[in-house]
User: Fold this.
Amino acid sequence: MPRKIIVIGAGAGGLTAASTARENDPDAIIDVFTEDEHIAYSPCAVIYAIEGVIKDFDSIIMHTPQFYKEKRNISVHTRTRVASVDVDKKTVTLASGTAMPYDSLVLATGGKMFVPPIEGARLPGAFTIKDVNGGKAIKAALQTTNCVVVVGAGVIGLMMAVAVRNLGKKVTVVERYPNVIPRIIDEDMAAIVQKHCEELGIRFVMGTPITAIKGKEKVESVVAGGVEYPCGTVIMATGIRANLDLPNQMGLEIGQLGAVRASGTLQPYRNDHLVKDIYVAGDMMMCESAATPGPIMSQLGSTAVRQGRVAGINAAGGYATYPAALSPWVTYLGEIQAAGTGLSKGLAEYFGLSTVEGKATGLTRARYYPGGKSITAKIIADKETHRILGGQLVGGEEVTGRINWLTASILKGATVEDFATSFENAYCPPTSMVKDVVNQAADALMEQLKLACQKK
Amino acid sequence: MPRKIIVIGAGAGGLTAASTARENDPDAIIDVFTEDEHIAYSPCAVIYAIEGVIKDFDSIIMHTPQFYKEKRNISVHTRTRVASVDVDKKTVTLASGTAMPYDSLVLATGGKMFVPPIEGARLPGAFTIKDVNGGKAIKAALQTTNCVVVVGAGVIGLMMAVAVRNLGKKVTVVERYPNVIPRIIDEDMAAIVQKHCEELGIRFVMGTPITAIKGKEKVESVVAGGVEYPCGTVIMATGIRANLDLPNQMGLEIGQLGAVRASGTLQPYRNDHLVKDIYVAGDMMMCESAATPGPIMSQLGSTAVRQGRVAGINAAGGYATYPAALSPWVTYLGEIQAAGTGLSKGLAEYFGLSTVEGKATGLTRARYYPGGKSITAKIIADKETHRILGGQLVGGEEVTGRINWLTASILKGATVEDFATSFENAYCPPTSMVKDVVNQAADALMEQLKLACQKK
Assistant:
């Protein structure tokens, strides 16, 4: 009898799980269910399609259900909701009532956009950034609006604000925390990002939660801090919460961050026991932090792909584990790239760690070589062990490789001393300084440690 | 009595040593001697000044002797040759006959361009790429030549060929080895680089040593493999050898790679003993490889800076050591960047290691995001331990951070498994693929290891 594998969710996690299961079991019957009409697209690419950097919404869709059927013998069922899962009987029941048995089940239903419970949140003209159809709706609305409020200054909110600004609209970003990309990057780095966005013409209302969206038949203004900001369109980028519809129905354990708790094999828990033959992947689950013991939410496509791979191997009867994660991320806003990995100073303090930090600003090329762009690197280390806990970068180019460099270093237990003394950097005038800004940040951190030592 | 520190050589190694010594000893009397007229410039920047990317030769010079005197109280003596060093009496004697005592001495006299011992090598119109004045002479010669032969297809030779080609000249590169950047990168990666240079219009004569430079009063042609290549200018980029004039005079031990052997503290040896109060830095010394036990030549400005720092600390009475090195490097040729770290497959085999390699080609952005450039990554690992020994990259952008990523990973003992399972990469459509090409290369390597395992 061939193995029956059911995957719920057709995002990065679910489709990677399905494809990986196929690689590991050529005979399995693999079905994927999704409520969405479109599959295999990158949600952040929706923003680029709204802006028009990517010409149309079709081109962000990597593959169709036909592709999966023909090339991988995987049946993808779009616009199909799974109503419930019976963990004991090992069956999935669709909204239509059809029940299907499984040998292995992968849950990858992702996240839901959080919409603040305020007056007017459902008015026409108020949007969340979610799927392809949602993106098309925003694009259509922007045809007739000149004034947009983006709620939330996280990475997605800022990306959206830049995209709308690039379309020539007036944009105001309203954020309840005092700095952009809150918690994820520290205030000093956030200030560089915000300043750049302001230079692009984006207005910020910081430290001010939105309290209402006003309008008769459609959005007319947003209220925050008692001030009314007129606008024709509101785009809410107020975060993603794990989609817990099925996990709650199934009685799976939800961890302290409001997402499914999973083992290294990505199996969920129920009544304090691992659930057999079920695996989770993507935005619906918590990860273990690799910087310090404790749970983190990753909520990245790149993470979902890695988890999907583990879930797929295990669903196909193999064995793989998902390790603790640092969740490195990068984004491009106007002319600058911002990136981070591991813990910010704020998050490290939340975890009870004492930190020291070092920061340096340099150029992406030798000083005398034309075209160099400013780049700032920050490294956060544990004050006692000098182990690096996290890093942040903001610069005009060449940020991604550097954040991966910091990520691998942290995962291998690197200390500030490693960076300051043994970690060499490649140099040529058109691509780097003779001492890279990351190494310079480590040197600055060494100075901080020396000072701290002298004070003792 | 203030400490008397003498530094011989005013390149990256010597000047970093002098500046670091000053930081560590505010009272020392520091003198730097160099035969060169100019100081504190990057030799590879000379090529950009010849091409005109950098407007003039002055702008590649970071600092003048006046700067060092005024800002750091360091006396830099240009056009001043040191004739000998008396190690026992601890004195330096200048060519003028003046003898100067020292408490600490830093030797950083760098390398000499190797000129093959062939007919015509000293004819007018035949150049080596060396210093600022040499660069000016090449620039002047190119005013009246349309046809140039570059001898040597190493990084410097290729950079020179691209620069001359960008000036609209006919360029032929003659190389004795069958592939460009021989030994440093492997044939498959070299092929990508060579193809790109050919697309720029550069002609290659490979696997063919030059046997003569012909001409009556000045260069008229180059002979290689029995074929005569007419040209008005020949630029020899046939490698750098350690400058051993002073080490030989001082009786210092020369290692098997023809360079000064040094301890971790960067002290040279004489009669099997460490020499007290003398330190070396830069192109004149051998390093220990961090990929496998054995000596390597680094010959990089970035290495010289790191060694200069160690030499400077020790010369000022402190204690620092220079660790084993991987010597990551990067270069920009036309539209592509090439980089490497650690051992190539060829070098690993020279060291007696069995290797497995993985390679992947991807894009620098998401497939659907405009402007992505091709990038190829290769990882070489030890067949037994799976430890990564080296990496190479060729791509249109964002290569430097990735090679630093590989470098730190190797230095921390990373295995292929680390890359394939735990090393996350940051992702956003305008700067990366959801799985980075470096991780994809590791996946390819894992497949090779699986196949090798199945064969057993």
Notes: Residues 154 and 181 of chain B are 4 Å apart (CA to CA). Residues 329-455 of chain B form a domain with the FAD/NAD(P)-binding domain fold (CATH 3.50.50.60).
